[in-house]
Write a structure and sequence with these properties.
Helix content: 40-55%
Shape: elongated
Strand order of the largest sheet: 1-4-5-6-10-9-8-7
Number of helices: 11
Oligomer: single chain
Structural class: alpha+beta
Largest sheet: 8 strands, antiparallel
Strand content: 15-25%
Order of helices and strands: HEEEEEEHEEEEHEHHHHHHHH
Distance between the termini: 24 Å
Length: 329
């Protein structure tokens, strides 16, 4: 099972926090694409002048993108949410009406609703306290395609009446386009959502595809590649596919022979096969190389690991396991 430390790290990545600054007007036009890996279409956004803060999958399965433009004090978010049935115009209207009603309760009059380019839109200004006319200007837009709703939110801090065209112009930079071929990072993100929910069987196909793509064209950095091997092997192991789990961690060690967590996972697999000698050797390899673990990884205590419970009744194994936990190892 994944450790709580690793799960937190993976959750932090799943909604990936990036440091992509796009500020200079002289730079070429920059575009972001937001898509579900299994869909043939994507939301494309011209983000020239914006800095991307989040671009990934939320733990609940929604695709999320967030960026800001410091020069204009504007922010943009795009959320894709899959539903069980067909996304409809009425579904978008209901969503916008709900936002409008909630907003009207806070600001009274001034909520505008309209349609533009098949998008259902609401706009409103939240005034600053003390009667200031400037405030937070918000624009929400919704559209549906297949079984997915796209929710677009554009806002501006320090806005005044008359700034509405700035937000509408940003809305004009959002389009539906054909999706590019999904890469290993896309499949890794898609697999990580069910993995974090404990739906390991659902995670496996995406992780398998990510690994296949990595083997032919490596693009993931070292940390993400390690997470891919670790998560795929763990998903196999939890779902009872021990041969596939063994092969996955053996492959990982062929590329990263000092990785202590891969050795530790192999020890668990050997324990499940009642191969005590191989389990002990893999544990020894894990603790001998523990200084090479990824930041945030904590070496498990085999004495507290249910995988080795059958061996802990053996005084020789228990004494040997005690020795592994000594500082000198």
């Amino acid at each position: 099972m994944p450790s709580s430390t690793k799960a937190l790290s993976l959750a932090a990545f799943t909604v990936a926090t990036l440091s992509v600054g796009i500020a200079a007007a002289e730079q070429p036009r920059q575009r972001a694409t937001i898509a579900f890996v299994e869909k043939p279409w994507a939301m494309a956004v011209d983000i020239t002048g914006y800095k991307v803060h989040m671009d990934g999958m939320k733990p609940d399965g929604r695709r999320y993108f967030f960026a800001t433009d410091a020069a204009t004090s504007m922010s943009l978010s795009v959320t894709l949410e899959a539903v069980s049935g067909q996304a409809t115009d009425q579904g978008c209207r209901s969503h916008m009406e709900h936002i409008a009603q909630a907003s009207a309760g806070n600001i009274g009059q001034g909520v505008m609703q309209y349609e533009i380019r098949h998008l259902f839109v609401i706009e409103y200004l939240i005034p600053e306290p003390q009667g200031q006319r400037s405030g937070q200007l918000h624009l929400f837009a919704c559209t549906g395609r297949d079984n997915v709703y796209a929710d677009i939110h554009i806002s501006k801090i320090g806005a005044k009446p008359g700034d509405e065209p700035l937000l509408r112009a940003m809305l004009d930079r959002v389009h539906v386009v054909a999706a590019a071929t999904a890469g290993s990072l896309d499949h890794f993100r898609a697999g990580s959502v069910p993995y974090l929910q404990g739906k390991y069987a659902e995670a496996i196909p995406h992780y398998e595809q990510a690994l296949t793509l990595e083997q032919s064209n490596p693009t993931l950095d070292r940390l993400l590649w390690r997470l891919l091997i670790d998560n795929l092997g763990t998903a196999y192991q939890v779902t009872g596919k021990f041969l596939q789990a063994h092969s996955t961690f053996e492959y990982g060690l062929s590329q990263d022979p000092a990785n202590p967590m891969f050795h530790y996972h192999l020890a668990r697999i050997y324990a499940g096969m009642n191969e005590r000698g191989k389990a002990m050797q893999s544990l020894l390899n894990a603790f001998r190389n523990k200084q090479y673990r990824s930041a945030g990884d904590v070496m498990p205590d085999p004495r507290q690991d249910i995988s080795f419970s059958r061996f802990m009744l053996d005084p020789v194994f228990r004494t040997w396991a005690d020795s592994l936990m000594q500082p000198a190892i």
